[in-house]
């Protein structure tokens, strides 16, 4: 028997090595790429970690009390984690997100956990979403705003996915993560750099939205990263430093992948390694492969965060080709004829 609840299962996700997806150049460089499978958290993403710790810290401090309503603005996975934990703890929950088609799964999953969902004008972007949510909380007594983009607790430890030993003692040479709130980069990055001062922390942005290098934000489809505004946590690594090429505090480089590249590498990972990930993980893998081909990466170990599971993105362009094929393969209504043979479809001939 066990007294664990669903919240107790968060964390301790596996770290696995990939081989077949590596480019010939990466293999020739004898680079070891390890992927941290954060999609194996119960809510399906790395954001379960911060949702758990932010809410439980608020309970400990007395800021969040029984009977209050938890509110958060989010691009999705954080909202799902919060909705799941609110369901387990008995809190009412409101999740605010942009009204965009790729957010369909996020809407559905949050609603399935019992949360209400408020959808804001996409054209107003993150500033509009943030302003609406803050105004909602201010006008309603008993509402608690999580605010994961600013929560002071994030960097020290709560987004630090434990990098367990892989074979012998693991020495991480490169740590690669996408930039959502910036909490994983600062929290995990700090921990790894303490263990190995030569570890390089690499932050990944969409090529279309390299705001931490001072570039303009343009639309992209890599959900979970690239909100279009410099994050609080990365800004605070070097207050006053202009956003430009180069390092920032413990972050060695800001690299990027495009929307199409993120889909390409997420698809490759599923088909060559049996690991199904979302677009932001495709982006981090693409950057890992770029690094693995550098001469200075020879013989090094690269740890990549896989933030979420690919099955969560069926409304995303990641699944467009497969959905089109499935629509043809599985017509509505189905062909119920008994006179046209037995086999109606062979995907190898599609």
UniProtKB/TrEMBL annotation:
One GO biological process term: cysteine biosynthetic process from serine
Keyword set includes Acyltransferase: no
Pfam family, one: PALP
Coiled-coil region(s): none
Cofactor: pyridoxal 5'-phosphate
Keyword Membrane listed: no
Keyword field: Pyridoxal phosphate, Transferase
Region called Disordered, residue ranges: 325-350
Domain (Tryptophan synthase beta chain-like PALP) ranges: 8-306
Gene3D superfamilies: 3.40.50.1100
GO MF annotation: an example: cysteine synthase activity
EC number: 2.5.1.47
Recorded superkingdom: Eukaryota
Homology family: Belongs to the cysteine synthase/cystathionine beta-synthase family.
UniProt protein name: Cysteine synthase
Annotated source species: Skeletonema marinoi
């Amino acid at each position: 028997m066990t007294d664990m609840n669903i919240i107790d299962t968060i964390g301790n996700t596996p770290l696995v090595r990939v081989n077949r997806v590596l480019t010939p150049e990466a293999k020739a460089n004898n680079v070891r790429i390890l992927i941290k499978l954060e999609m194996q958290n119960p809510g399906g993403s790395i954001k379960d970690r911060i949702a758990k710790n932010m809410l439980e810290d608020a309970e400990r401090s007395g800021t969040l009390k029984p009977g209050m309503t938890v509110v958060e603005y989010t691009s999705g996975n954080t909202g799902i984690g919060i909705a799941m934990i609110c369901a387990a703890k008995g809190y009412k929950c409101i999740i605010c997100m942009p009204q965009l088609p790729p957010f369909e799964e996020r809407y559905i999953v949050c609603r399935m956990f019992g949360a209400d969902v408020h959808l804001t004008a996409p054209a107003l972007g993150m500033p509009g979403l943030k302003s609406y949510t803050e105004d909602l909380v201010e006008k309603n007594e008993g509402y608690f705003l999580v605010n994961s983009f600013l929560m002071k607790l994030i960097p020290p430890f709560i987004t630090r996915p434990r990098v367990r030993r892989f074979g012998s003692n693991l020495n991480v040479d490169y740590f690669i993560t996408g930039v959502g709130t910036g909490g994983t980069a600062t929290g995990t990055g700090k921990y790894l750099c303490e263990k190995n001062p030569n570890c390089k922390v690499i932050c990944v942005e969409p090529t279309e939205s390299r705001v931490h290098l001072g570039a303009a934000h343009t639309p992209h489809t890599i959900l979970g990263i690239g909100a279009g505004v410099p994050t609080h946590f990365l800004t605070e690594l070097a207050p006053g430093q202009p956003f430009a090429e180069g390092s920032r505090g413990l972050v060695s480089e800001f690299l990027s992948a495009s929307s199409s590249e993120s889909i390409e590498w997420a698809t490759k990972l599923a088909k060559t390694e049996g690991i199904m990930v979302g677009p932001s993980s495709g982006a981090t893998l693409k950057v890992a492969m770029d690094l693995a081909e550098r001469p200075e990466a020879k013989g090094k170990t690269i740890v990549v965060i896989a933030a979420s599971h690919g099955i969560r993105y069926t409304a995303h362009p990641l699944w467009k080709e497969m959905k089109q094929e499935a629509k043809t393969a599985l017509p509505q209504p189905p062909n119920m004829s008994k006179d046209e043979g037995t086999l109606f479809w062979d995907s190898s001939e599609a």
